[in-house]
Amino acid sequence: MADQTIINNYTVSQVTYSVTAGTNVALQHATAILIISPLSGYVVVAEDFSWVNTTLANIDTVVFTQDGTDVRCIVTFDNPFAMPAATTILALCISGSAKISTVQVVGTYNATGSSTNMTIDQESPIPETISYDVSGTAPMAVMFLEKTYTAASGYFFVEDFNIEYTGFNMVVENYNCVETKTYDANNKLTAINLKFYYTFTNEASIYGNNINVTIPATEATYVSVNKIRNYSLLGGSNLVGESGEVKTVRVYGNPTTTFTMASANGAILDIGNVVDTVFDAIQFYSTTPTITMPATGYFDINIYIPESSSSVTYTFTLAGGNLISPFPQPNPFYIYQKAKVNLTFTASGANMIVSNVLPSQTSFVKTFNANSQPNNSISTASQVNYNFKVTGNTGQLLTLNNQDGAGYATWSNLIDVDTQTTGAVTNSLIIPVQSAAGITTGMRFSTTYVSLSDVYTVASISSNNITLAGGPNLTLPSVTNVSFSNRAGSELTLPVTAVLNDAATEATITGPGTIQAYGDSDVTFNLDLTSVITLGSANGCVEYDIVVGNAGGTVKYYDCVTKTKRVIYTNKGNNNFSICALATPAPVVSGTMTSTANGDTCDATGVDQTCATWTIQYNPATTPRAKQVAVTYVNCETLAEETINIGVLSAAITQCATRQTPVSVDPGDGGATITLTNLNCTP
Questions:
Q1: Read out DSSP for 372-419?
Q2: What does the pLDDT read at residue 77?
Q3: Burial annotation 476-509 (CB, 10 A radius, 16+ → b, else e)
Q4: Is the same domain home to 107 and 93?
Q5: Do 249 and 259 contact (CB within 8 A), yes or no?
Q6: Would you state the pLDDT for residue 288?
Q7: Per-residue model confidence (pLDDT) at position 8
Q8: Beta 383-384 vs 398-400: how paired, if at all?
Q9: Mean pLDDT of residues grouped by 10 in the chain (683 residues)?
Q10: Is residue 357, in this structure, part of any structural domain at all?
Q11: Are 239 and 318 found together in one domain?
């Protein structure tokens, strides 16, 4: 291989062979392979290359194939090709060029913030998380995303939109957002169009970028109406924590119009020094004096919510002859103070005894601030480390249900029902849905068209029509995704892993669970242990008739003598037989087997006497290991349990026993390996 030649943004290797004059070159070297490699920032594709001087002497064919990021140029010589006496140069004419490599940028667009008094477009819902994937080459500038947000008629955005660029390998300078804003006659922002562009450079592809857009709150536009027309709660939220807070209500109306505001929770209203006789003194009212709207067209009333260790609902009413009718907003309106929320975790099941290692309790409680998210990385409020110990109340045997099956590990109040509306909702609290299955009264209703501060619950259900209570009337599009839950706004994950002890008399159930968010009310989550564990019987042996069927199978059951699981294997053509097994849990058959309790009680004499050959060897792969292990089997003549000792690393032995699988002691290294060799043997 000689030096490389650089052309058209790629390099081509050169090949040199030493051949004796007069020799057939094709017999020594049938082909020569040249490597076409792209320069940095470029790519080469085999289909883009061709051989031009096809009549070149001594060359039969030239073929281009892809080899990863390179292209292989395979040159096949004529046969025969007699080597001349002098050095011969075969100069290929290759047509083709390298292309500029395409850069891919992948990220997520996140829109959060206020959705109140917004004209929500199907293309721009709030909140919204979507993925974007844009490709291009330097120095292209490509528009990859466009969003439009519009305030409802009579409203405007109180501040500019906040746009942040974050994430792995984020190059902010490569992003550009073109904002097209719409203003009303009062120069108030009423709509904005966002077009996002990415300018490509010769950098490698980038993944994990984030565009975060915060939608500002809206406020009503002043309209010259000789009435008190509306109000807004500054800050947007009507939720207050247990430490209390000062909230401000702004009332809008025509100058010189009058009104009052009343509190149903005592003297907590402050109107400033408008009517106070002492300057700088705060005077609190349960009902304000008559307030005259100033020239600004709005008036602010401060509400002093005191500290409280319990949840309180505060009620406020606007009154006076100048209120517009019908009033366009809920009146009275409410502020909700939420104390710390308690999430209680329990476990219960019929005839089961439950204990918990935190410590020896059947329940425990996690407490955190209402409507808040604990820091999952450092806060114990996010961790639910349940560890339940479960036994039967009379020492019954336990079996585990299918941990991968549907409905496994059922928790009360951890139910979510997702459906869609089947028609538009206009100024109503009756929601038509595709299916009401699983929805119950008291469940919390949610959709992207509802403010987080408005709490709706299911009041009644009639067929597929859900009547809500708790918030103002709703207006929804004809097809809207809606959800119902009984978690009171809490978000959590409660996985369950169950393990039995060797005797199958005790189950350990662990998590750990995770609390992503606390809602606004206390909730108890109870694990239905019957969804995880099946309770058997410590006594009660019953004779079962086993019909083998046309292809045999297996019978898994609890032996009456040992109280342990046993397995019987059958083959095609084996005779029907009977076993003596615990009544509960009942035997489980597979294949073409059937199992029927014949109503007779029994003891070990009911065990099938068919003999099978078992191969047994103690050859552990780990240390420490015992010198020998005990293997217990059921003699197929006497139906009595017998035990043999198998030495470590000894040759495999065969044992004739019933079709119940022998049991090996496990000294910590796995014990003996037991294999069914033959379903027939002579004792």
A1: B---TTT-GGGEE--EEEEEETT---EEE--TTSTT-S-BTT--EEEE
A2: 93
A3: beeebebebbbbbbbebebebebebeeebbbbeb
A4: no
A5: no
A6: 93
A7: 84
A8: unpaired
A9: 70 91 91 91 88 91 92 94 91 88 89 87 86 86 92 91 91 94 90 93 84 92 75 82 88 93 94 53 87 92 89 92 88 86 89 72 77 73 85 80 68 89 90 92 87 81 91 85 90 88 83 85 90 73 83 82 75 78 81 82 57 88 81 81 88 86 81 85 80
A10: yes
A11: yes
Paired tokens of 671: 């014990």
Read off the tokens for 177: 């957002």
Q: What are the structure tokens assigned to 262, written together?
A: 């009343």
Segment (H or E) for 186: none
How far, in Å, CA of 550 to CA of 571, rounded? 9
Query: Measuring CA to CA, how many Å separate 420 from each of 206, 414, 436, 476?
Result: 37, 20, 10, 11
Structural domain boundaries enclosing 456: 416-486
Residues 142 and 234 occupy one common structural domain: no
Q: Is the separation of the CB atoms in 228 and 297 below 8 Å?
A: no
Considering only CA atoms, which of 286, 285, 290 is closest in space to residue 319? 290
* Stated length of the chain: 683
Helix (H, G, I), strand (E, B) or coil at 606: helix
Query: For 454, what's the count of Cα atoms within 13 Å in the CB-facing half-sphere?
Result: 23
Please report the pLDDT score of residue 665 as a whole number: 81
Last residue of a domain, one of 53, 77, 100: 100
User: Please, are residues 438 and 427 in contact by the beta-carbon 8 Å criterion?
Assistant: no
Mark out the alpha helices in 244-332 (DSSP H runs): none
Shared domain for 109 and 216, answered yes or no, is: yes
Which two structure tokens, joined as six digits, stand for 442? 């008291």
Residue 335 near residue 316 (C-beta atoms within 8 A): yes
Q: Phi first, then psi: what are they for 58, rounded to 5°?
A: 75, 0
Quick check: is 683 in a domain?
A: no
The separation between the first and the last C-alpha atoms of the chain, rounded to the nearest angstrom, is 76
Residue with tokens 């599009």: 477
Report yes or no on 437 lying in a domain: yes
Q: Strand, coil or helix: what is 578? A: strand
Say which residue the tokens 């006594």 belong to. 539
pLDDT, tens digit (0-9, with 9 covering 90-100), for 480-525:
999 999 988 888 988 888 888 877 788 898 888 889 888 888 899 9
Whether 310 maps to a domain, the answer reads yes
Q: How many domains does the chain have?
A: 7
C-alpha to C-alpha distances, 228 to 262, 333, 632, nearest whole angstrom: 15, 15, 90
Task: Pick the last residue of a domain from 100, 127, 146.
Answer: 100
Q: Which residues of 67-78 are buried (b: 16+ CB within 10 A; e: fewer)?
A: eeebbebebebe
The residues pairing with 527 across neighbouring beta strands, listed in sequence order, are 347, 411
Is the torsion defined by CA of 321, 323, 324, 325 positive or negative? Answer: negative
Show the tokens assigned to 215.
């939608």
* CA 429 to the chain's CA centroid: 30
Q: What is the pTM of this model?
A: 0.45
